[in-house]
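Chapter review. Work through the record for Amino acid permease before attempting the end-of-chapter questions.
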Amino acid sequence: MSTPDLPASARASEKDGGSPPLKRALGPKLLILFVIGDILGTGIYATTGDVAGKIGGALWLPFAIGFAVALLTAASYVELVGKYPKAAGAALYTQKAFKVPFLTFVVAFMVMCSGLSSASAAARAFSGDYLGEFTDAVPPTLIAILFILALAAINLRGVAESVKANVVLTLVEVSGLAVILAIGAYAVFSGEGEPARLTQIETGGTGYALLTGVLGATALGFFAFVGFEDSVNMAEETKNPARNFPRAIFIGVGVTGTIYVLVALISSLLVDSRTLSGSSGPLLEVVKAGGVDFPPKLFALIALFAVTNSALINIMMASRLCYGMANERILPPTMGKVLAGRRTPWVGIVFVSALAIGLVSTGEIEGLGDTTSFLLLCVFAVVNIAVLVLRRDPVDHHHFRTPTALPVLGALTSLILASPLADRGSDVYVRAGILLLIGIGLWVLNKVVMTARERSGADPV
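Structure tokens for Amino acid permease:
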């Protein structure tokens, strides 16, 4: 029996008795919810306070700038995933554009590490002030580790189960942000809050200090927008990706960006920046200050679901990236092994979950979140350039094509936000540098093993 919705390579793999292909389980509605759920979560629920600490009352400004930057790069991803609907994402695009295996590996490893640092930030957020509404009897680090192990088990169960869990968690986290929006509407109509705070930029200086302060807050706030790039790694598990991805990504980024700017406005309106920056559960402070009788414990529970969703998706995406890289021979083929009964990349799931557990102990929410943003901004610059390079490689099917100006602007803004102009802590560069060195070490090891197999006459695959 033929399988027309599978790539030819996947059908050949089944026919030849190789590893079974991934299951195409995502339709357009599930994909839109998946993208929204992928973006919403830890960033807005946990780092709003840290962004406020960098910029002051004009909390909405970094999120508005981040929204624009995200749209620029999202357009590039939409063109590329429609053109090359495979699971490897940015690594695939880099290899096709530049054909430099080392650069491809570095980009792929940075994407994977960004997902893991994001999941680790979510684990830290889960064990912070939101959980503190219920208990503080269990050590936060232990809670974070158990949290990641539980998510790994869900991912092993299957993509359909993981995505359905994502849909439920997405609806819950959207309800939490709807509560914030409702509180904001009540505050505006009842005359509550301090509108004057919305124009206060407190970066500790003027001129250059003002510029770097705003850029630093934007770079950290950009963590709230990461996620849409993860969805392209689900291309081989999506029905008709060339048609469904453009709408899903643009709707997802548009909805979440609008919500983020509104939530930032409301947060600053009701709570001063010092109070927000002093809490790992800043939106809980908004609920308490909103003048609406909404149970703080219920909102804390919603927030816990939200950060759970972020971590679930990031563990899922990192494991699919391992699977895609293994199929492209960038990682050892063992990383591409699929669990026969569940048809999930079990080796990849175990591997990335172990790394996420290790990252939990290296920093707090702000540092891990900023590391995620830095790594992805570097990748986004490469992807935006790759779009332009790959215009020389036409394909025989219809796909979305972004206006040329957008990837040019996307590359420039990504590079600026990744540069030292964005006033970030040195720990972010140190953490990213160590991760990159680990990646280079793995690349060298894999290269040596592959070369030895080729010389011995063994099949390198």
